[in-house]
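Title: Prediction job returns without error message
Component: structure pipeline
Severity: low
Priority: P3
Assignee: unassigned

Description:
Job completed but the reporter wants confirmation the result is attached to the right record. Sequence as submitted:
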Amino acid sequence: MTDQEAASAHAARLVAELFPQALGAVLGGSAAEGRSTPTSDLDIGVLLPDSAGSGRQVLRHEGRLVELFLNSDEDLAEFFQWDRARRRATVVFVYARGAVLVDPEGRVARARQMAEEIIKLGPPPLTTEQWRHGRYVLTCYVDDLVDTSPSNRHEQLAVADHALREAAELLTARQVSWTGIGKWLPRRLVEADPELGTKLLDGHLAVAEQADPTRLASAVDELLQSIGGPLREGYAHRWTWSATGRA
């Protein structure tokens, strides 16, 4: 039995044991793609008959960490739209690219079709204000990166990390591609733009390994030039207040 088959079998046992009422279930993430390691968690989407148990849940089953994405069949379409708005579409990808574990009534098949349509549609475009804010923030990060002394490694690495994350958000948005966090950030970055995405990642690596910010700064500048240029003076943002704080 392959690792992928073993992961699917484990996930199916979990669903049968913990969610006998499930309308369907799917195994997503690295395990479904055959890229998991012995310590990788299992990402499982479970369709439930009502929304009482909807949410995210993390547990350990048979010694393995499991992350559950629980949704009611009735609310799934609305949830997928919320997931799309985040521009990462985490659960959408679980259903679209995952391995079906159980689907007695074809509900997972319908969910997969809906998820595939959302992936083809792509993430929502950034607003004009989001583009301006992103350009300003990324300009600040690259200015700080160039100004930070290579002898101050903690600050240099922290700024480089922020610069890469913000650059990834803007590059994927420019390409109308999905973004990601963690290990999915470099994957999505290269998928969006193999050439510039690789330049950003290699530049970040040069900061980490050689304390040299020039390659990352150059890649960021190339990105900024393609979306309107650096933004410093002239940027303005009005505070908005609410009962829970300000933004």
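Comment from assignee: result matches the submitted record. The longest helix spans residues 153-174.
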